[in-house]
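Give me structure tokens for this 57-residue protein.
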Amino acid sequence: MLFTGPVILAQESGEVVNSTKTITTTEWYADPIYLIIGAVVLIIIVALLSMRGRRKD
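Here you go.
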């Protein structure tokens, strides 16, 4: 019983560690890469449709 007091006190930690984790997310429509890819696909579709109309069999 004489040693239980110091052992219990030795196990206490005086430090308190607080950590915060910040996660940021962006919507897909806010990312410019999707706008660029969408514009390229739209231009390709319009070009293909306009070439299709010019063909004469």
